[in-house]
Predict the structure.
Amino acid sequence: MSENQTRFQTMKIRVIVPTTADEHIIAEQEKFQEIARSDTEISTVGLACAPDTVENDFDVALSLPSILDEVRKAEREGMQAAIIDCMSDLGVQAARRFSCIPVMGPAEASMHYATLLSHSFSIIGVIPKDRVFYTRLLRRFDLVDRCVSIPVVDVPILEILESDDPTKLVDACFDASLKAIREDGAAAIILGFAGMPDAVSSLQGRLADSGYDIPVIDPTLVTLKLAECLVDLGVMHND
Amino acid sequence: MTKPKKTLRQKETKLKIRILAPCSEDQSTLERLQHQATLISHVDSNPSVVFLPEGPALDAPVHEVIAFLPELVHQIQAAEKAGADAAVIAHYLDPGLDAARELVSIPVIGAGHTTFRLAATLARHISVITPVRSHLGPIEDIFADESLLNRLVSIKLIEGFQKDSKYCPRSLLELAQEAVEIDGARLIVLALPDYNDWADQVKERLAIRGNPVPILDPVKVAIKHAENIVEMGMSQSKLTYPTPEIRIYDGCLDF
């Protein structure tokens, strides 16, 4: 990466949202562009052929081919990084096998920042299967000893995302976080859902009011920031 | 619902990143470090460099650097008081990192931990190259702290390293090649104490030889992470780094 490229040119990042729902894709475009740097341009795409959400390994299998197609397309269209916007880091490892641009997933990016800022963290899941997804990833990233728990909150996450009122979600995450801090020893919290910045800052504020000034990791935010970082540094994965 | 305490940083304001070089100042080191910081910082960022008055040499062994830890931590506190948004400890051994993180609220980023962690997200097999024999053990200690020893395939020592050389030493290029071809490294960290910007040259040389691997420069990685963490409104966990009680004693700096 040259000096001029770093400082003056627009950085192009493609966000691949593993869903076919147009309204969700548009919402993600707005959320990512809102948090992107002034010199970063976000373009968001969904999948042509996939389930609405990814909740189990069967959904993963059905979504993967379309996701990899979108990564190839992002490369062809001159993107400098691709983000697969799914907390199970769906297809990230597979895409890195062939891709010539950095491919990022929210779980890995979240765990990276949680590890940099604390000695231990908990991940709050939203469905029981999340425990399986995260445990696999923790093993892969050599972070099993840093994650002290994966509590799952029992809230209808899709309804909340659509209603745009995160109160019920924040209440549930607050209770789960307090338990993770007091009983499990968590010193940072990763939220296992993306795209609710108000929920993240509200939860962080409530925890601070309770005496726990700790990082609450917003997966959407950290993934974009790590992608920008890799492009600036001119490096990518090599496995 | 509680009103959010932290919000994303406003894009209109420049990030103030204080880069602390834990060594005594000299003009050529200052120029190199400022050059690196300017190269890598983004358009919304304004990095500034400070040194330790009467500090150690950059390639000093760890026990000599330890003598300056109180001053180093004091400098980071001064950065916070002066309005810095984040501080970077520009040394791959992260002297004073944990202490500084306890003392201040702004994010403090250590070049070593941050780079080795990032390396582990990018590749399974990592090699580190350094010219300082006494730093071999401490580098390995950081990998052990991070539970990353199984990713570390080698720490290679550059013999006869000239600190102020204008040209990338041949020995560095050869060691990088050896790290990839013999040790199996898929990523190389340049743990060089003099802030020379040789990552691109090493990367190009390896690519020409058919070994295109990422090369990480710890100071650049740390600056990028500092920018990111400030932009995200985050800082180190106060459960991991609780604010210490300041006890006064003879000779104590004014914390």
